[in-house]
Specification:
two-stranded antiparallel sheet; single chain; 16% strand; alpha+beta; 443 residues
C-alpha cells in the first residue's frame, strides 16, 4: 500500500461478508506460511489472553452502502450513502428509486440506482439467503435485544427512543439526483421492505447499471418468498412465508443496515460467546466514554464485565476521520505496558500469574480506508532486523514504510515484555511461531 495517498485502502469492500466471520487473515504479523484456523486461536490458551477490540468509529461507518467501487459508495454526479431513509442518517444523500426518477422524466437506466437495493452490488443490503438475528446483550434500558417488530423496527436498537420505521407501509424522503439535472425532490410511496434480484444480462460477472433486475417487495399479498436452504428461520427452507420474510427483513433493518451495525453485530457475537479471556475495547478516536480497559470476562453477557463491554460497544456513534495507523500503534503501546497509551495502565498478567504464557491480540474492525499522517515505525516488515522480514527471506514485507502492516510487524517481531521469559506456546498448525511476548493483529 502506498503511504503517499491521503486515503489508502487496506482491504476490499466485502465488509458485510467479512464482518460475519469477524476474524480475517493477519496483517503481515505472523511467522510462516500455514493454515489459518476457522475459530479464534486465542480462545484455546490456558492462560487468559489479552484481546483488545478496536472499533472504527469514523464517519463512513454510518453509511448504508458498501459497493466495490467509488470508495464504497454510489456515485451519480454526487455521492450517495444510504439505501434506506432514517432520521439518524448522518448524511443527506439517500439513493432515489427508479420509479421516482422515471416520474421526473429522467431516462433509463437512471445510473443503475436499483443496485443500491441489491446485495450483490451493495454488500450491506438485505440478502434473502441470510438469517438475520438480533445482537447479543441488552439495549440502553437493560432490555434484551429481540426480533424487531416489522411494524415498528427501531432505527437504532441500542437507543430505541430514536424512533422506528414501519416496514409494511409506504413512506417518503427527500433526496436529489445530481446526474442528469434531476435536482432536489421528494421520493414518494417508498416501500421499505424491498430488494432487487439481479440478472447478469451480459454474463460479465459485474452488476452493471443496465443489467436486468426484478424488484421484490415483501408484502402480505404475496404469501411465499425464495430464501435459501440454510435459512434457519424458515420452516420450509428454501421457501419462506411472508411472516418469516418480513421478520427477517425487519431484523436486517434494525441490526445490520449500516456498516457500524454490522461491526457491532460481529464484535458482539465474539464478545458474548467468549470465556477464559481478558477483553478490552477502544475506538479509533480514543473516545473515553466508550473505551473499556482490559478485564477478565465472565460468561453471562447480561452481567458483570461482559455486560459493560457490550454496552460500550453498542453505544458508540460514528463520526470523524479514520486514523487507523496511529490507533493500532497506540494498541501496541498499550499491550507493551507503555505509559503513553490507552488507560495509562498495564494489561499484562504478572509472571506469577502466568504472564510469560499470556498471548496478546488486537482485532481491528474497519470499513477499509485510513487517513491521517503517521511516521513512527518505518519499514518494519522489510528492514531485515528479524527472520520475519522480507529481506531475511521471511514471508512478509514490501518496500513501503509506515503502513498498517509495518505497525503490526513492529509489535509482532519485537518483544513487548522483555523482562518476561519467552515461554509462549502458539497453537500448533497455525502461522504464529514467535515465542517472545508479542501482539498479533487481525483486521
Amino acid at each position: 500500500m502506498s503511504t503517499n495517498m491521503k486515503q489508502t485502502p487496506i482491504k476490499t469492500a466485502g465488509i458485510a461478508a467479512v464482518m460475519s466471520y469477524v476474524l480475517l487473515s493477519p496483517l503481515a504479523a505472523q511467522a510462516a506460511p500455514g493454515t489459518l484456523s476457522d475459530s479464534p486461536l486465542f480462545l484455546s490458551n490456558s492462560v487468559e489472553p489479552n484481546i483488545l477490540f478496536m472499533i472504527d468509529d469514523s464517519g463512513s461507518m454510518d453509511w448504508g452502502l458498501m459497493t466495490v467501487e467509488n470508495s464504497g459508495v454510489m456515485r451519480l454526479g454526487c455521492d450517495y450513502y444510504y439505501a434506506q431513509p432514517a432520521p439518524d442518517n448522518d448524511y443527506f444523500w439517500t439513493v432515489a428509486t427508479e420509479q421516482s426518477l422515471q416520474s421526473r422524466g429522467i431516462a433509463a437506466p437512471y445510473g443503475g440506482v436499483w443496485r443500491a437495493w441489491n446485495s450483490d452490488y451493495n454488500r450491506l443490503y438485505y440478502d434473502p439467503s441470510i438469517t438475520y438475528t438480533p445482537w447479543p446483550g441488552e439495549d440502553i434500558n437493560g432490555n434484551l435485544y429481540t426480533d424487531a417488530n416489522p411494524a415498528a423496527a427501531p432505527y437504532n436498537p441500542y437507543t430505541p427512543t430514536v424512533g422506528s420505521q414501519n416496514m409494511t407501509a409506504t413512506t417518503s424522503y427527500s433526496t436529489d439526483y445530481c446526474a442528469g439535472g434531476g435536482g432536489s425532490f421528494t421520493v414518494n410511496n417508498f416501500y421499505p421492505a424491498r430488494y432487487n434480484v439481479w440478472n447478469d444480462t451480459d454474463a460479465d460477472g459485474n452488476v452493471d447499471a443496465s443489467d436486468a433486475h426484478v424488484l421484490v417487495e415483501i408484502r402480505s399479498s404475496t404469501p411465499l418468498y425464495t430464501g435459501d436452504i440454510n435459512r434457519r428461520d424458515c420452516a420450509a427452507a428454501p421457501v419462506c412465508t411472508y411472516a418469516e420474510e418480513i421478520q427477517n427483513f425487519a431484523n436486517w433493518f434494525s441490526y445490520y443496515r449500516k456498516r457500524e451495525y454490522v461491526a457491532k453485530a460481529g464484535y458482539g457475537q465474539v464478545m458474548a460467546g467468549a470465556s477464559n479471556s481478558r477483553m478490552g475495547l477502544v475506538t479509533l478516536h480514543n473516545n473515553a466514554s466508550v473505551n473499556t480497559a482490559m478485564s477478565s470476562m465472565n460468561d453471562d453477557p447480561r452481567a458483570g464485565a461482559k455486560r459493560s463491554l457490550l454496552q460500550s460497544l453498542y453505544k458508540f456513534q460514528a463520526s470523524g476521520g479514520t486514523p487507523l495507523r496511529s490507533a493500532v500503534d497506540d494498541a501496541g503501546k498499550y499491550l507493551s505496558c507503555k505509559s503513553n497509551s490507552y488507560f495509562g495502565s498495564c494489561p499484562a498478567l504478572p509472571a506469577t500469574s502466568g504472564g510469560e504464557c499470556q498471548q496478546n491480540f488486537t482485532l481491528l474492525m474497519t470499513d477499509g480506508y485510513y487517513n491521517g499522517s503517521f511516521g513512527g515505525v518505518g519499514n518494519a516488515d522489510g528492514n531485515n532486523d528479524t527472520v520475519w522480514d522480507s529481506d531475511s527471506a521471511g514471508p512478509y514485507g514490501d518496500s513501503n514504510s509506515n503502513t498498517l502492516a509495518d505497525i503490526a510487524m513492529e509489535y509482532y517481531e519485537n518483544d513487548i515484555r522483555p523482562g518476561v521469559a519467552n515461554s509462549l506456546n502458539p497453537p500448533p498448525g497455525g502461522i504464529d511461531e514467535n515465542k517472545a511476548q508479542h501482539m498479533v493483529t487481525y483486521s
